[in-house]
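User: Please predict structures.

Assistant: First:
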Amino acid sequence: MNLQEAIQTIAKNFPRTLIVGGFVRDQLLGVESQDADLEVYGVPADQLAEKLRELFPGQVIEAGKSFGVLKIPLGDGQEIDVTIPRRESKSGKGHTGFVIEGDPQMSIEEAARRRDFTINAMMKDPLTNELIDLFGGQEDLKNNILRVVDEHTFQDDPLRVYRALQFVARLDLKVEEKTFALMKKMVERGDLSELSKERVSEEMKKLFLKAEKPSRGLQFAFDLGMIERDYPELFILKQTPQEPLWHPEGDVWIHTLMVVDEAAKIIRREDLTENEKLQVVVGALCHDLGKPATTKMGEKEGVPRIRSIGHEEAGEEPTKQLLNKWMFGFEVEQAAIVQATQHLKPGMLFRQKEKGELNEESYTNAVRKLLKRAYPVSWKVIIAAAEADHRGRDLPEVKEPVYPAGELFVKTILSQKFDQEPIKPLVQGRDLIERGVPPGIKMGELLQKIEAARDEGKIKTREEALALLDDDLSKM
């Protein structure tokens, strides 16, 4: 049963069923949705759950009793959330300070009023196709306006400010004046501090992955004062200048927003997993966090220059600090650190080869060492970060369709099969055991010595490594 069939089945088996929220909005925008939210009127919650289990045996999942949401996965990424109308009201401080009360007899107007924005308060009857728009959502959507439905109920859940970031970015919306003032007030009085990392992370993830230009949401967060209040690692980028010769676009904040948008383009172009996509965009956000600590005014041949020497290494700590505020997982944090500390390397190695400072062999070995340092972060993430940084500048050459440093980097990886075993040692412990060396400190020293010789380009093959090992053992 597909999504539309499932919606029809539910609607025909209850007194009144309405499609609500994003599904209705996306339909008006001509966007196909993979999930839908339904509100069922006139039926108590327990009867709703019982009947849904009859209609969809073995498929109904109760997603938290306190929220009263019944999830029905349909396969192929399609899913339906079903609830009865409910009131959510603030009962105390913190992200658990809510009272959620279901009311199957609630009026449609009251149910719509509790929603966040007018574009999400529209409803649709799946049996008649009637659009129910009590707060002007269709007109706001047509005019690209983000407007709260009700100023009082909106403030019950500060997470709605974070939701605004992703809607502004995803739908390219202008925020209505009173709505902006309300959200700014909520930021200033600290309402968002009550939110859990989990809830904030989910909204930021949507911003990073669903928006073609996440910069719009990030800049909106800056305008609201969210960045200054809660993300000092990002706020200081606005006060950090860059060398105009290489970054005519302006300060590090402007450059970072451009890089994030380039990263968003790249993840739509490349074959990446969902987690790798998140790694690329989050890493793009973090890639220059080391510049504030390292940026200095200097001179080159008598000309004033702005330099940020060592900013890659300096980026690790602020990246950790920033990502500690979200919960994207260890893999994303690890990838972001790699992007912060290694994002210049592919371009630097390419220039060294172009100048003749590296030959084919030494370039290949340098690429292998980079992958070894970055492991287990995928090479695809590494080169996506480098390309996003390259293109996120206001220079003519960044518009060229081919990124030469990336092309050579990828060609080398594939030809050498570094995508398969980039860090596999040439010699392993069993080779030493076969030669009478027991596990222990000495074995570790010998293995490290062989890998160091490989990194220095003295040996390349397993045969050469074993010969070096045998030579060392003969001298012991």
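Second:
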Amino acid sequence: MNSIQNIYRAFLQSSGINTDTRTLKPGQIFFALKGDNFNGNDFAIKALNEGCSYVVADEDRIEFKSEKNIIVVESVLKTLQQLAHHHRIHLKIPIIGLTGSNGKTTSKELLKAALSKHYNCYATKGNLNNHIGVPLSVLEINVNHEIAVIEMGANHQKEIELLCSICTPDSGYITNIGLAHLEGFGGEEGVYKGKKELFDFLSENGSTIFVNEDDPKVVRAVSNLKTIGYGKSATSIYQGNFELNQEGLKVFWWRNNDKQLVHEIQTNLTGSYNFSNVLSAVAVARYYGVSPEKIKAGIEEYIPTNNRSQVIKTELGNTVIVDCYNANPSSMLAALENVELRTDSKKFLILGDMLEIGDLSESKHREILVKANEIVNTKTFLVGPEFGKVSDGKASHFEKTESLKAFISENPITQSLVLLKGSRKMKLEQMLELL
């Protein structure tokens, strides 16, 4: 029973895959994954008792011997990945793969919004974009779906290569190549090589490559390859520009220098850095035959959530840009540049530590602080030990978010623009209740 073909037959008759007994539904197959702090094999019998059809385990325990519905394999993780690839081979729909240092999830959601106006579109849920999330996502695609978007994340080299081998995208793009996960990738060049793995896969398989021509590193990654470019460049097939207004980011786009036919999209997003995310959705959706009118409708209906480029108007009269799902030097700089462009009379920056930067942490935090100090009419609050190492006295520093909350409780912020930007572990979203 433990061959992939046999497991696949069981999968087709099941109600899906699950890796957590807390959310198990009858008829599912439970994959007993292992982690640093858990071992799914411990829950195999419980999963069967709660109605799952099969358990895939990788420990040959005595109590498993009498259970015909426990399938023992060499590695549950590898089996999950192989099963997903096997399923992908049987799917006769295009899969679009995307990765990048910043904006992956927002870009994915914008593309899904555009494609969904024309297709029954599946897209990665949340940020299930790693070596476990991608196979789980692929296995959720069913016969009713007509197209799929798979987000791929990575924090070290060869990870995107692995994810591509699982979901075998027919086309794809890199949102940008910045300074995320520097520690795991081994520096800036390591990030470049890691992200480029998507283009390498697409090139080797004769697949379609979309290129953000406003990002020099992305352009470098596709030298001598046939591509579909998008950006402000006059050489791009899909060209555009933007303005920031009271409603947010407004994007103008046209094709092949034909400015006689300009399309407008008023988004619910903030920040010039989202321009390329919108334009990538335009380029990919048009390639797959979605009309400009449907693209406009889809993107204009999209409202950001989950602390990603959210704009919240509060009872205290503040406009809060909530962008604290994650942070790295390039996304932090983009967020600061956005605040700099805004014309609000009073501005506050609440900046939390950027994590996983490694040896460059001190220099990158100092660079961000220098930029923050350049923005006029702005008060800056820094949170975390990394910013503490470079604090220069011009900005107020707090070791923890709780300490800043106590200060703001005594010194409320009203009628202002406020940016919340930091790595997830800093939990800056907790500041919202005081703003």
